[in-house]
């Protein structure tokens, strides 16, 4: 019984099919010497005076010896570049996906990191890519808040985590360029050459370009580099508060020496900006991100928000003059622009009583007002209004049940 491609190539079978291999060869300037329909003969460009490699690539998966021929082609290509199969799979995946590498260089006694650090690292990477996607979708957005359908589809469908590399702790994130891949793949199957300028600009490339640009300007701002842009220009280039917070979170671990970030652009789509593909943040630079975060917070004007969450703290206040109304401060834990925050709210009278009731009964509390950063804490500072509709509904239901 013939073995399947998955049996032969294991976890890399999904990447190492004939279409992706042909796309990779074309991106490396190999040429088709013979196209038989069911198979193609490819030859590498080669260097002067060196023997030119030839590869027979099967193009019809219904062939009885398809798996064997494809395995031989992959082995030949791997030998040509002196790569392992895993290296070749990564390069082929990059043809249809921009790759983003995050390397945490820190002291590790046994080559591992704590599970909580790994979980936090993945969350931070997700925050950075989400911020870049929101900014790419709307350059005037803050990088926070609600996401459009375009951004949600990209985050849910097109961003994948690859295998961890050897050497420190390296995470590979693949952002797929499926929207342009089908068009280029059709051109390559027909043997035609495609002009880079005729290709559409994918949303994926816009996001990853925004990510690379924003990381670079964030480093420049943090280090006060001679070529660092003004803060407004850095924001225009894509630097956003969630990205700075994510970087700072990634660096808050003992023994960290640096965070190394790098990009590998899919050759299927031209890179239209001249960007640094390698960005290294030393521990010293990471420690400077606090100041960058403070500058960005000051840049954000106060805005009116509605908070929904549990009351996690009550602080009774003093009555003023002849006022018999109960007053005090509460702390609401609520989702603000995609992250949990503890927000202080000053209330009095019936509003404060409602907050106490919500706290005792462990009910969600809804309050709106102008959100501002006061020193290093968040607070609703004006136009505070409590929405007691849920509490009233709960009371009516309890009365009916009684």
Mind explaining what this structure looks like?
- The model has no long low-confidence stretch (mean pLDDT 82).
- Strands 9, 10, 11, 12, 13, 14 and 15 form a seven-stranded mixed beta sheet that branches.
- The longest helix has 23 residues, at 115-137.
- α5 crosses α8.
- The protein has helices at residues 5-9, 18-27, 66-81, 85-95, 115-137, 149-158, 178-189, 203-223, 231-236, 241-250, 283-287, 289-299, 349-361, 389-401, and strands at 31-35, 39-43, 54-58, 97-106, 159-161, 169-176, 256-264, 278-282, 303-309, 311-316, 327-336, 339-348, 365-374, 377-380, 385-387.
- A hairpin with a 3-residue loop joins β1 (31-35) and β2 (39-43).
- It is elongated.
- It has three domains: 5-94, no CATH class; 96-299, no CATH class; 303-401, Beta Barrel (OB fold (Dihydrolipoamide Acetyltransferase, E2P)).
- It is an alpha+beta fold.
């Amino acid at each position: 019984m013939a073995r399947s491609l998955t049996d032969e190539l294991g976890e890399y079978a999904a990447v190492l099919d004939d279409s992706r291999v042909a796309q990779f060869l074309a991106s490396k300037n190999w040429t088709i010497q013979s196209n038989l329909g069911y198979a193609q003969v490819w030859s590498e460009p080669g260097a002067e005076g060196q023997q030119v490699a030839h590869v027979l690539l099967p193009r019809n998966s219904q062939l009885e010896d398809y798996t064997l021929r494809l395995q031989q082609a992959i082995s030949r290509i791997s030998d040509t570049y002196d790569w392992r199969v895993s290296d070749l799979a990564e390069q082929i995946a990059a043809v249809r996906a921009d790759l983003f590498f995050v390397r945490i260089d820190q002291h590790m006694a046994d080559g591992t990191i704590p599970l909580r650090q790994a979980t936090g690292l993945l969350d931070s990477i997700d925050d950075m890519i989400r911020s870049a996607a929101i900014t790419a979708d709307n350059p005037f957005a803050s990088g926070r808040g609600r996401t459009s359908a375009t951004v949600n589809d990209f985050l849910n469908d097109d961003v994948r985590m690859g295998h961890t590399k050897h050497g420190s702790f390296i995470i590979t994130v693949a952002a797929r360029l499926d929207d342009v891949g089908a068009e280029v793949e059709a051109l390559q199957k027909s043997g035609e050459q495609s002009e880079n300028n005729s290709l559409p600009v994918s949303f994926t490339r816009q996001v990853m370009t925004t990510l690379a640009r924003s990381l670079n300007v964030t480093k420049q701002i943090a280090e006060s580099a001679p070529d660092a842009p003004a803060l407004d220009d850095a924001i225009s280039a894509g630097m956003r508060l969630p990205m700075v917070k994510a970087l700072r979170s990634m660096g808050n671990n003992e023994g960290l020496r640096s965070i190394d970030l790098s990009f590998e652009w899919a050759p299927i789509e031209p890179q239209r900006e001249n960007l640094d593909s390698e960005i290294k943040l030393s521990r010293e630079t990471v420690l400077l991100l606090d100041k960058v975060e403070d500058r960005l917070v000051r840049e954000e004007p106060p805005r009116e928000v509605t908070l929904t969450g549990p009351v996690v703290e009550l602080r009774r206040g003093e009555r003023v003059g002849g006022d018999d109304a109960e007053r005090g401060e509460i702390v609401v834990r609520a989702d603000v622009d995609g992250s949990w925050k503890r927000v202080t709210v000053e209330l009095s009278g019936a509003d404060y009583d409602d907050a106490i009731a919500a706290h005792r009964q462990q009910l969600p509390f809804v309050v709106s007002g102008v959100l501002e950063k006061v020193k290093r804490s968040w607070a609703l500072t004006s136009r505070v209004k409590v929405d007691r509709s849920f509490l009233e509904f709960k009371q009516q239901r309890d009365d009916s049940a009684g």
